[in-house]
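Problem: given the chain below (501 residues), write out its structure.
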Amino acid sequence: MKIFNRIAHRMVSRLPSFLLFLCFSCNVYAQAKGDLHLAITLEPSVLNPAINAATTIQKITYQNIFEGLTQIDENNQVKPSLANHWNVDKSGLLYTFTLQKNVFFHDRTQLTSTIVKSSLERMIASNSLNPIRNKFSNIEQIMVVSEHVLRIKLAWSDGNFLYNLGLPNAVIQHPKSWSTNAIKPVGTGPYRFTEWKRGEYISLVANHYYWGKLARIKNIKIDFSPTRSEVVSHLADGLLDGYSSMTEVGFLDSLFAIRQDYVLKMGDTSGEVIIAMNHANEMLASLEVRRAINMAINKKEIADTPNFITGAEIGSHYSPNDIAYLDLTQAYPFNLFDAKTLLGKAGVPLKPLTLIAPPPSYAQYISLHVQQMLEKIGISVKIETVSWQEWLNRVYQDKDYDLTVIAHTESHDLDIYARDDYYFNYKSRDYKNIIGQLNRTLDPTLREPLLKQAQKKLSDDAVNVFLFMLPKVGVWHKDLRGYWLNDPIPAMIFSQMYWQK
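Solution.
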């Protein structure tokens, strides 16, 4: 687990050797009823992962409400889901999927190959809003073979095709619910949506007609708590059974000082925390300026921020836990003198930059550091804090920004830098060629050097400032089992969770 262990040790060492008192009432009540009460900091604007990239949507719906043909497990491996098995022909272009039988949507509509075909065609349509539509640009034809057999023909082979089909945005949806899934999602999963009280909570209930193994916890309630301090307060009062995304450890001292019915669990995510730069900005279009910004960012100082946890340092858009990782963390060592020298060579007038900061605490902390660090090389930065929906609209969609701090939580996403319309506005024919070769290569031994080339190219071009992996720090009730320690993708699989008797 590539977490800064010294920080974790520092946090745990502060925990008291004895506890002041114990309060079980609310949690015992939840266990007795077979309920689970969790919290998420950011409330999503919609609940349909097929039209919105927000990770909170994925955490609520993935393998809970919605399911895909395949799924990704905690070890980042592809497993069967709505497709119980598949075959690939020798060319690597023709995939035949056999669906699970007796699968019903929550409205009691039976799943068929025709419905799957419609869902996939909607995902890849030219007017699709699906955040990962470009991952399936090689789908040439989708054919219904029989009621439970589907065939997909690719224009070129793709070593990530089965993995991509298991991502939270590639879930299968019925055409009848397309228009309402944003506010009242209907899927095939082990839980049914029951209520969304805006600004307060979302509730789910176990699907007793589920085609697979029935969930052991009947009722799920997910609160929207806007601040970490509020989350800790609710934990201290026994109102929550867990929280999976704690990035500020200072709040935990008071919690563990009064309770012993919670445990701290640390793991990894696939989220790369970056300082993204808009290459459409004339100043940031300069390679020398981007390299200077990289050299001006002191990652160690950010990592040493009190009560703040970071994951493993990175030097490109790739997780150290993945195969073919290339260590590029020393490509731009912190050096203010060299940074100023590069700015001088750039010959570009220095103008103030606007940094759009989304709500997550890591973004707030890091944005302040960026502002202070770039000031030292003569670049003025104005921070604008926005809501998550504003960030999606302004940065992700309209590209109306100069800098932003964000965690890209999607695994295996080197391809985003090859997209012409992506919000970085990075354009490189050489990089596109690397990704093109990678997409057409199935052999893992041949893919590895291409993956390393892609990482090196992003580093050489100083496309963004690559900071750290986003850690996963969870606080859970000691009797709860089945939650993921690591998050290779954003997910909370409620059907795998249970109360230990």
